[in-house]
Automatic annotation (TrEMBL):
Organism encoding this protein: Polyangium jinanense
Top-rank lineage group of the source organism: Bacteria
Taxonomic lineage from the root: Bacteria, Pseudomonadati, Myxococcota, Polyangia, Polyangiales
Protein name: Protease PrsW
UniProt GO MF annotations: peptidase activity
Residue ranges crossing the lipid bilayer per the database entry: 6-24, 36-53, 73-90, 111-132, 144-162, 174-193, 199-219, 270-293, 313-335, 347-365, 371-391
């Protein structure tokens, strides 16, 4: 049993590293200095040591306090305002030597490589320290593997901001915003994975999916910066119709997302924002009711979700899938009905609907707020995707 536990733990630690090596070894993504990436990975592991010592000391000082049902106030404050910012700051510190020593030699893709290597090294040692002394189970390795992948993808955000800065500054609006979002995402993922039951572990999947999607767009944006843009734009203008229009199915990229959010031939309609919020809420309600009816026909026991029982995974997946897909359908409906050529109004509607849902959950079931925060980024992304697919060509 001990040998099996060690084997599963090693697989959980090695799988994210193997995925990273396989991804970074591709010709277009290969860093200019692999040795610097390896050194940054080692520095990320070293940065985990002071973080663990500091966090364990703070954990001994903070006594758990309960507010409401199942809410640990000290744990929430510690996770969101102490542990996550501290860990993300140490990851940036581990990235600094390679980035500063190779000023003028690295490419934008190298900054992302340094950031992800530091995060991967940090989380690998953190996961190993967590698995040591844990009883045999498949849940603990799954928790470490998912949080490691999530943290690595989230580090891509501020790595992208660092690479796109022409002056190579570790600061500025883009970098600070990406860093705060990465720290917040890691806090939510860690809290859901480790402070909740096994069924709640599924809530880390939307965070991972959203973080990986933004990371993929960041990689595409960085790679496209090296192309000959004037020739491409001239070629596109030659084949473009006389009446310019936004192609709803254009290849996704960060630049295309920014254009879709900004492009509008008319002022923002607050009427469609309010109506879109109501439509989104209605679609969510209808989808959840349909999921409950379908689950009952299939024999699912939805009460098992509250008990965090082993048979709670299937009904939880059904409800989560229905809720997330409802944002995709609602975004498409709002975009088609409003005949808009921008996803800005459907995006604002989705944000208002998500905010309202989180407030209602906070009043009715405070424990579910963390799960809602975990699914919120992916829900917003699906709403924007649905609106993008429904953009009017007229």
């Amino acid at each position: 049993m001990l040998a099996l536990q060690i084997l599963i733990g090693l697989l959980a630690l090695a799988a994210p590293v193997a995925l990273y090596v396989g991804f970074a070894s591709r010709e277009t993504l290969r860093p200019s200095s692999p040795r610097s990436v390896v050194a940054t990975f080692a520095l990320g592991m070293l940065a985990c040591i002071p973080a663990e010592l500091c966090e364990r000391a703070l954990t001994g000082l903070l006594g758990p306090r309960k507010v409401g049902v199942g809410i640990d106030l000290a744990a929430l404050v510690y996770a969101y305002l102490v542990a996550a910012p501290l860990e993300e700051a140490l990851k940036v510190a581990a990235t600094t030597p390679a980035f500063r020593l190779r000023v003028g030699q690295h490419r934008p893709i190298d900054a992302i490589a340094y950031a992800t290597a530091a995060a991967l090294g940090f989380m690998t040692l953190k996961s190993a320290l967590f698995l040591i002394g844990q009883p045999f189970s498949l849940i603990a390795p799954a928790r470490t593997a998912l949080t490691t992948l999530t943290a690595t993808c989230l580090a891509t955000w501020w790595g992208f901001a660092l690479g796109r800065d022409k002056q190579g500054r570790m600061g500025g609006g883009w970098f600070n915003g990406a860093w705060v979002c990465a720290a917040g995402g890691n806090a939510v993922a860690h809290h859901v994975a480790f402070a909740r039951g096994p069924a709640a572990l599924l809530a880390t999947l939307p965070i991972l999916a959203f973080a990986a999607g933004i990371a993929w767009l960041a990689f595409r944006d960085v790679l496209q910066r090296g192309t000959d843009k004037p020739k491409i734009e001239a070629r596109e203008r030659e084949h473009e119709p006389k009446k310019a229009r936004l192609l709803p199915l254009a290849p996704p990229s960060l630049r295309a997302m920014r254009e879709a959010l900004k492009r509008s031939e008319r002022p923002i309609s607050f009427f469609w924002i309010g109506l879109g919020m109501l439509v989104t809420t209605g679609v969510i309600t209808a989808m959840l009711v349909g999921a409950v009816l379908l689950g009952r026909r299939l024999g699912f026991e939805f009460a098992a979700i509250d008990r965090d029982a082993s048979n709670a995974i299937a009904p939880l997946l059904l409800l989560a899938s229905a809720a997330l897909l409802s944002f995709l359908f609602a975004g498409w409906i709002v975009a088609r009905a409003s005949a808009t050529r921008s996803v800005l109004e459907p995006a604002i509607s989705a944000l208002l609907a998500i905010g309202g849902a989180i407030v209602l959950l906070g009043l009715a079931a405070p424990v579910a707020v963390v799960i809602a925060l975990a699914c919120a980024p992916l829900a917003f992304g699906l709403a924007c995707l649905g609106a993008w697919l429904g953009l009017s060509d007229a």
